[in-house]
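anyone seen this seq b4? input:
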Amino acid sequence: MRTPTAIGLFPLHSVLLPGASLSLRVFERRYLDLVSECTRDQRGF
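predicted toks r here
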């Protein structure tokens, strides 16, 4: 059995299609930490 993988998510009221982009203003500490972690590990979010 495979171990579940944790992924970072932003709860948004938007739908994005593949290849689309959305500018975000990140100010909450938990989301700043998420962005920093994803950037450090070269992962998307």
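Residues 29-40 form the longest helix (12 residues). The chain has a mean pLDDT of 87. kinda curious what u guys think
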